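Submission sheet (multi-component)
Chains listed below:
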Amino acid sequence: MEKTAFDANIVQEMLTEKTELVETLKNDVYSTYKTFPDKTLNGMKTTLIYPATKQHIAKYSEQEFHIVQESGEDYKKVTLPYVKNKALSNQWVYNILNKETEADRIVFEDTCPDSGFILLPDMKWDRKDMDALYLQALVHRRDILSLRDLDQSHLPLLKNILEKGLSAIKEKYGIPANKVRSYLHYQPSYYHLHVHFAHIKLDNPGFEADRAHLLTDVIENIEMKSLYYKEKTLVFKVREDDHLYKAFLEHGCIQK
Amino acid sequence: MEKTAFDANIVQEMLTEKTELVETLKNDVYSTYKTFPDKTLNGMKTTLIYPATKQHIAKYSEQEFHIVQESGEDYKKVTLPYVKNKALSNQWVYNILNKETEADRIVFEDTCPDSGFILLPDMKWDRKDMDALYLQALVHRRDILSLRDLDQSHLPLLKNILEKGLSAIKEKYGIPANKVRSYLHYQPSYYHLHVHFAHIKLDNPGFEADRAHLLTDVIENIEMKSLYYKEKTLVFKVREDDHLYKAFLEHGCIQK
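Outcome: structure written.
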């Protein structure tokens, strides 16, 4: 369950005598209240996963975290086998790419098999609050697992997503490029290349410096050095009960 | 008004048939719902200021932000003159380095004039909650404004801060290196080179991917290419009422 961002129209409706206030503190001009708006005005959001695997449950449980420094060698030796054996299914991505689900939610599509992608709202965005704008671009190619796979051969794809993604967002929602953050996650939550587009005002837990890589930085780094992301040490935060963390421990690549 | 964090006991009470669910999306094992719990379980917090001055109103009014892409040339032409003319005084930093203030708060010092630094708790940390651990290392050298100035000549300084900073934190607070994020800000809030050390669990608004640069990444990028941070486009978020934003506009380096 998640509490959702305020909607300006609904806030207006809350500012009536139907909202109960219980004073908790008063000092000079300042006072605080517990506030109980009408139930219909104070909706939340629930995401249900059913049936849920153990991995799903672990993903949403509270955990200890560790910082991992993954070298290019660590990736080949530890992470890649993990991704091939343990990662969650991408079937839901293929359903979207095949237009079997969510076809009505597509904001933009470039159908080119090499540099094309589908842009659609992230499940976390209600599509109403523009300050919380959040979309994802899913590439049509199915052979790129993550940032680690990218080199100069992918520059046309990356530039295409940056340019057409931002211009589709401008056209559809009126939000200009200088208000939109575009980035990739490493580690990503699923291993099919995708790019996040989020409003600069969105307070997004996935925009931490040890997870988010700006798309413009990715392009510039690869232009400077084609193998940048194959050789660079990539730093990420990992949960103690994550199979990937256990794999790093087993290989002696990190210490407990 | 603010939505409050979930309380585990109240979440239990929400998980009953009294909570209304309205399905909004379904794909494979995943589905989402609008959720309306009983009003009494779904309280918020309100802060009232009455009467409010114009300053109060300005403080809580929405600010516009923009993403700026600063090239190495932009830095020399726009940012450097701004830093030299407009940035806040570093006198408070020099007071610390001279032991004129906060000497009793120093956690560790390396007195070497070239690669030395003073490590002390950030003002935002209460020094009690270890999950909120937050320190800063201030370098003794006074000629390095920010990340932009760094090249291979600074590698001994940077490696010294990383190694001795993390080991001082381990020794003093018992927090190991794999739970501590070390990073630089760009733009920084003051232009005297410093490094942030924060606990991995700290939900820190200064750790966004368009502000925080991991110290290990900085070292590796400079090892790969000495002029990396002098030439790289650096992306940052800026407030519309910030002098730096106005300087970028005046120079025609960004469009409104």
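Remark: Residues 80 and 189 of chain A are 14 Å apart (CA to CA).
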